Amino acid sequence: MDSIMSMLHDICMNVRSKVSKMSREEAGISLARGAGGDITKKIDKVGEDAALEVVREYDVSCKVLSEEAGLVDSGRKGRGGADANASNDDGSCIIVLDAIDGTTNAVRGIPFYSCSVAYATSDRLSSVTHAAVMDLTSGDIYYAVRGNGAYMNGSRIKTVNTSNDRAGYVIGINLSGISIDKLKRMSSILAMTNHIRQFGSNALEMCLLARGLLDAYIDVRGKIRVTDIAAACLIIVEAGGIVVDEHLNMLDAPLSLDARLSFIASADKSMLNYIFSSIASS
Amino acid sequence: MDSIMSMLHDICMNVRSKVSKMSREEAGISLARGAGGDITKKIDKVGEDAALEVVREYDVSCKVLSEEAGLVDSGRKGRGGADANASNDDGSCIIVLDAIDGTTNAVRGIPFYSCSVAYATSDRLSSVTHAAVMDLTSGDIYYAVRGNGAYMNGSRIKTVNTSNDRAGYVIGINLSGISIDKLKRMSSILAMTNHIRQFGSNALEMCLLARGLLDAYIDVRGKIRVTDIAAACLIIVEAGGIVVDEHLNMLDAPLSLDARLSFIASADKSMLNYIFSSIASS
């Protein structure tokens, strides 16, 4: 494990350690509105603080883009800092963090929420080189380094188009707050698929796709932030899957909380073609 | 715990014991088409056999309505059979069984599937007096006896309308294979709710509602069978919730695999009114 991946791993571990001590009541206390526009819950703040603590310990010169705090300096102590200097740490790097993806689940007590963290060498989603997503309930960790495949707890994972029967596909779709126009575009897929899923943490659901448990994951609402998906996008691609925008281009975006994205992630090309033809026919 | 509840508990325990030994590959082997019309997977058959084994041990005179086998005799050994005779066991009772609710999740390795079993004194859903649903991953058991409240692992559970902010509601909706017309009726709720969920086991999702983790659960597809929901309906009602049909009548149906239902389950009356007004405006 290289020093960057070691940092991402330690971030996830520290977030899990800190938030697992919180009661549901404490986790759900509303604080101020975060940089991303949503009300920050106490669990978000505790998670973010835990992540930033690790970033400071690694003494990297990157900025951190976080759902709660926005784009902030890492709080680097000074030059000569440890292992991370072995990497491409010239100060243009960005750590893209959603300390708690699936806050509502966490606060409700639904055991499906995650910590998502990615390392990018510049200011675009396409420059992400390292990624980690941890299931904060089980402690399972999904991770990838660009060009080196995707892993879960040390074992290689791959996307799988598991069914030759369209009705048998298991497709995750984020429909929370979807506009009526955009819902209409999903109507054929919903009608033709016997197994629709929505668990409530985009990052973790995308990892289920990377692991071969879902065939596709779709979010065309135009609402999702790069902080939610930066890590999982690389994990899917390194697992053999595809993540595209609504125009079938490889998904890319500036690493900014202002960007609101739509995307389709798919186990393989044939699955992607099926989804696009379904959307086109709706 | 009375003898009927003891039997339902033992059914869940035996199903969990038997299916937990199966690999995903074995679980997913396709067998013949079941009485309910779906292809029976090996995990369904192993689960059903495990349940029927317990029913025979309890030596009750009920029939069993099961998703795979249809309506069958319990295989009673003879008169004089044990504890269950202390109950209303005059031969008109029906045990309503879905040994594996969420088969696709089980076969994929998604840890959200359950065993659902109910005891009815006659041939209508409204005659269910005892109910149990077990989360087959965690072993958590939800249960209720009519008039005596609902429980999870020995602790009383209650529905909770957790939010005074409509956007903050967490609403489960089953959208798998939904027709375009019926999807249109859901469009306002989807647009107004920031937290839509679909985990893939109706029975277990309804128990999340009973436990206060969801505010409502909606399935208006007209596809669900009584075997999937007989137990969870009683658990919700005993937890203080409401389960109605599309005309706002308390949900009832014959205990038959021919019945295909739509229903709306809600934490309380104000939540139900909100959902109905949303559907009416779509």
In short:
Two copies of one chain form a homodimer. Chain A has 282 residues and is an alpha+beta fold. Helix content of chain A is 33%, strand content 26%.
How would you describe this protein?
The structure is a homodimer of 282-residue chains. Chain A is α+β, with helices and mostly antiparallel strands. Chain A has 2 domains: 3-157, Fructose-1,6-Bisphosphatase, subunit A, domain 1 (Fructose-1,6-Bisphosphatase, Chain A, domain 1, 2-Layer Sandwich); 166-281, D-Maltodextrin-Binding Protein, domain 2 (3-Layer(aba) Sandwich). The first copy, chain A, contains 8 helices and 15 strands. Chain A has helices at residues 3-19, 24-27, 42-58, 103-108, 180-192, 202-210, 226-238, 269-281, and strands at 30-33, 39-41, 63-66, 70-73, 94-101, 114-120, 128-135, 141-145, 150-152, 155-157, 170-173, 195-197, 216-224, 242-244, 261-266. The longest helix of chain A has 17 residues, at 3-19. Chain A is globular, with a radius of gyration of 18 Å.
Q: Layout of SSEs?
A:
Two copies of one chain form a homodimer.
Chain A: H1 3-19, H2 24-27, E1 30-33, E2 39-41, H3 42-58, E3 63-66, E4 70-73, E5 94-101, H4 103-108, E6 114-120, E7 128-135, E8 141-145, E9 150-152, E10 155-157, E11 170-173, H5 180-192, E12 195-197, H6 202-210, E13 216-224, H7 226-238, E14 242-244, E15 261-266, H8 269-281
EC number (chains A, B): 3.1.3.25
InterPro entries (chains A, B): Inositol_monophosphatase-like (IPR000760)
Enzyme class (chains A, B): hydrolase
